[in-house]
Each structure stands twice: as C-alpha cells, then as structure tokens.
C-alpha cells in the first residue's frame, strides 16, 4: 500500500540519428552500393585483401541494421491492444469483527501524515514483524491462486478479507484515507491503488495484488504481479524484470549501507533492458506505523541517509520502456511499458498510465541486519 509524498521531477531523452541519404546507415539499409574509381584501383592492386575487408565491413553493418530493424518491429508489435480499463461496480465495504484490533486511523476518512520516525526494532518487536509479514505473504500467495480469467477483483478482495480476519488480523488498506477495500488490485495499465470491483479478469491480463495486514499492532506489506491466462512474451518480460529490479535493490541492503545504493542498483539493471525508472513511487518505513520515514527512492539519487540494523522498510520497483517528462506525487515503484504520464480516477486512488501502457509492481518488507537484509514477506 502506498504512502503519499510529493515528488516533482523532469527527465527527457533526446534521440539523434543521421538520416542523410549519403550516411553509412542509409547506404547499408538498402541503397545501391556504388564503387568509386579510387576503390576500383585499390581492388585491382590487391583484390583479395581489399575484398575481404569490405566484406567484413558490410557484413557487420548489415547485421547491426538487421538487429536494429528487429528491435523496432518488436517495439511496435510488443503488446496486443485491448480495451481501456473501465470502472466496474464497487460493492459495499466489508465488516471487521469487533474483537479484532484496529489501527489508529480506523474510522477516520483523513489520509494519515507520513510519520517522521524511522522504525527500528528490538528482538520482541522483530518477532511481531515476522508474524505480520509471514501472514501477509501467505495471504498474497493465496490471492495469486485466484487469478484466472472471468474472476472479478471484488471476489479476490472478499477472499483476502476473509482470510485476514480469520487469522485475527485487520486488512490495513481498509479505511486508510477512505480506501474502501481490503486489498489493492491493479490490472494492466493501472499503476497502483486499484479498487476491487465487478470487472472480470481477461485472458492475457496482468494484475498486481497489494496485501498489507495489521496483526498484533504491526503491519506487514507486500505485493506481486500475477499473470492471468495466456500472457504475451512482452508482458512476461515486463513482470520478470520488475521482480529482478526489486531483488537487486534488496541485495545491497545491510547495516551502514547508503539508501541511495538501492536506486542505483535498480536503475543499472532496468537500463540493461532498455527500461527507465519511474520516480513517482517510493518505498517506506513500516512497522507499528503503516507508512513512515525513510522514503526509499528507486531511481538514481543523492539523498542522504544510511540503513540501521533492526530497521524495517519496503522496497518495490517501477520501470518503463522509455524516458518521458515526469510530474507526480506519491507511493511505490512499478515497471511500465510506454509512457509514465498518469491520470487518477475520480475515486482519488486508482492511478493509470495516461497512454494505456501496462504496468507491473513488486514489493517486499525487509529487515536490515548486520550483514544484509532479511526478506520478511516471503513464505
């Protein structure tokens, strides 16, 4: 679940290329090959050597152009366009039994302020964090088994809600700043904070399910993007690279490490695949408080601060296939194919990519140790 923050950033990529008819790229892209008199005289003097050199040059350039054309074709055919996401019917808010402890924001429509304190735990509170995060991971695994064509996100929400309250926990998103459901379900171009409704999942969809539970006074927060039915290779790659970025961000974490290393590691890996890192969404401290400092940036940055043993926070990953001008506010990293410009529905939660490009997201809650990081939200 996302923490609201204000970030304003602009990034642009200017592409320059030679398009002159006399350029080497146009010559080997299909223009006739004309030999100059100088070339002929050299060829006659030393025919074998010169011909071999020219052959290698042509072969190398043609191979480069072939690869470039294939990539261009892949980029234009990478995704099957489907109808844009539409709001379905949102069912009434589900009840929580009186005996289940509620978080402090329960009953208030106001969005809580981001807490300034870093959440560092002793051995007792670490045990509570492990229990909350382990439950969140089990709930998320179960939610993933429900992802099938024709299943509605509202059905997923009801199943998640029931599992959480049966475990004696509270679904943290429910009522947080007025959020009406117990889980976030973000389908296809929905970047985050999707509200479960009556829309049926379609064959080829991807869906991020974001689960947070409040158990014995502690929050465990995790999310994963699932494949629904027969998903395209492009979307599978989007999901896979997103998860790998999160894993690489976690790998640099340990006591004394700089927070900015996370963003560098994620950016390095994303750019290997031609992706750029979206700066809108950030990780956050989590524990007895749902959202607190530190804010975890997932793009390259020079923000100060180092990790402390016993500290807990979330790491997520948001990437895109091209760089665009970015202006936004709020929450957790995602990976998106296409533009990262976004729009928010009138519900003030559901955030979609402006051009309909699909987005993927992963999130773990981690505990900083002396030598590394323990992933708490995994079974």
From TrEMBL:
Its EC number is 3.4.11.18. Residues 77-90 have a biased composition (Basic residues). Gene3D superfamilies: Creatinase/methionine aminopeptidase superfamily. Binds 2 divalent metal cations per subunit. Has a high-affinity and a low affinity metal-binding site. The true nature of the physiological cofactor is under debate. The enzyme is active with cobalt, zinc, manganese or divalent iron ions. Most likely, methionine aminopeptidases function as mononuclear Fe(2+)-metalloproteases under physiological conditions, and the catalytically relevant metal-binding site has been assigned to the histidine-containing high-affinity site. Residues 74-98 are annotated as: Disordered. Substrate binds at residues 193, 291. The keyword tRNA processing does not apply. A divalent metal cation 2 binds at residues 221, 284, 332, 363. A divalent metal cation 1 binds at residues 210, 221, 363. It comes from the Eukaryota. Residues 128-369 form the Peptidase M24 domain. Signal peptide: none annotated. Its cofactor is Co(2+); Zn(2+); Mn(2+); Fe(2+). InterPro entries: Creatinase/aminopeptidase-like, Pept_M24, Pept_M24_MAP, Pept_M24A_MAP1. It catalyses: Release of N-terminal amino acids, preferentially methionine, from peptides and arylamides. Keywords: Aminopeptidase, Hydrolase, Metal-binding, Protease. Cotranslationally removes the N-terminal methionine from nascent proteins. The N-terminal methionine is often cleaved when the second residue in the primary sequence is small and uncharged (Met-Ala-, Cys, Gly, Pro, Ser, Thr, or Val). Belongs to the peptidase M24A family. Methionine aminopeptidase type 1 subfamily. This is Methionine aminopeptidase. It comes from Rhodamnia argentea. The lineage of its organism: Eukaryota, Viridiplantae, Streptophyta, Embryophyta, Tracheophyta.
